[in-house]
Structures are given as C-alpha cells and as structure tokens.
Amino acid sequence: MTATSTTTGGARAGGTRTDGTGTDSPRTDGTIAVNAVLRVAPASPAVAAAHFGASLAFHADVSDVAAALAADGDPGFVVLDSRSTESWDQGHVPGAVHLPTALIPEQAEQLLDKAVPVVTYCWGPGCNGATRAALALAELGFQVKEMLGGFEYWAREGFEFETWEGHERRVVDPLTAAVGVEDCGC
Fold first, then answer.
1. What is the dihedral of CA 71, 127, 130, 99, to 10 degrees?
2. Is 109 within 8 Å of 142 (Cβ atoms)?
3. Which runs of consecutive H residues, i.e. helices, occur in the chain?
4. Which range, 117-121, 159-163, 178-182, has the best average confidence (pLDDT)?
5. To the nearest whole percent, how much of the chain has pLDDT over 90?
6. b or e along 76-92 (b: 16 or more beta carbons within 10 Å of the residue's beta carbon)?
7. What domains can you pick out in the chain, each with its CATH number?
8. Between 20 and 30 A from 101 (CA), which of 23, 37, 56, 129?
9. Which of 75, 73, 91, 71 has its CA nearest to residue 83?
10. How far apart are CA 131 and CA 148, in angstroms?
11. What's the rounded Cα separation, in Å, for the pair 166 and 5?
C-alpha cells in the first residue's frame, strides 16, 4: 500500500491508497484517494511565485543564453565551461571561458571580473558539474547562474559550437526545440 492524501469537500488529509491503480478512487470512508501528482499539495501561489522567481535567479535557459550572445553588443555576462580540456575540445559554446571546476579556486579571480555575472555549464542535465562550478564561483564572490541543459542541449537545439577542428552545428532535435522557428513560445 502507498501513502497518499485524500480529499473530502476540497480538504486534504492523510490516507492510504487501497486499489493500487494510481488514479483517484472512491474509498469506503467517502474520501477520494489523490493521484501521485497531487499526493503532495501544490504550494500556495505566493510560495510558488517565490520559488520560481528564485529558480530564474539561479538558472538560464540555453536558448536565452544563445539569444543574448547573438544580439549586438555585450550580453552583460560571461559563459564558463567547467568541463575538462578533452570535453572542451569535443565542443563548447563560442566565446566561452574554459575553466574546469577543480581550477576555479586558483584561477577564477585572474580570468573573470566579479562585476560581470557568470553563466556556468557542463555536459548536460545528467551532470552537476555546472552546479559545482557555480557554487565554487559564488563562494568566491561571483554572481552566477547555471545554464540548464548544458552543452548537450546547446548542441541539440542547433546552436553553433566550436571544436578543436572548427565550428559545427547540428540539426535541431525536435524533442528539445521547435524546428523552423526562432522562438518556441516559452
């Protein structure tokens, strides 16, 4: 049996799912078992706004970074690739600074300006290297954001990247970005 919340007249209380179907189901006590999505009640609008606002203060989307870098003028931030030299050589965001996470404590203050926000990235969503790099930079006093999706989504969304052999661009992966349009509407 799985613990879940129940609903009676719009209120939630603790309970146990008895049918195992994963759907809302009437129970013998007149309550309705709530599905896994609503097992933990959504936050209040004020708490949700604070959370999502904070999330945007810590994260940047690949397409937003690409758009800012492509616009004329200074984007107001620097992009930092926190991966190894071998990874950097396989491909990196054009114009990014290469500084592996382990070298941040020794080299960040020589390579970066604390007055300029830093956007970190690593391989992709399955890697927390950009998070570790962002933490190391923040501990040194830098303003920092993490680029969601990392290099993987940069390449999968069809943005140009540099390798040790030159510039490359992949076809847009339709599972990561809208094909044939500049703006996904997000």
1. -90
2. no
3. 45-58, 62-70, 85-90, 104-111, 129-139, 150-156
4. 117-121
5. 66
6. ebbbbbbbbeebbebbb
7. 2-33 (no CATH), 58-168 (3.40.250.10)
8. 56
9. 91
10. 10
11. 56
Q: Residue 16 corresponds to which tokens in the numbers above?
A: 């146990």
Q: How far apart are CA 16 and CA 1, in angstroms?
A: 7
State the chain's maximal CA–CA distance in angstroms. 68
The tokens describing 163, both together, are 């390798």
Whether 58 and 145 have beta carbons less than 8 Å apart is answered as yes
Specify the amino acid at residue 77: F
State both tokens at 71. Answer: 């616009």
What three-state secondary structure class fits 127? coil
Q: What's this model's pTM, rounded to 2 decimal places? A: 0.78
Bridge partners, 14 (sequence order): 5
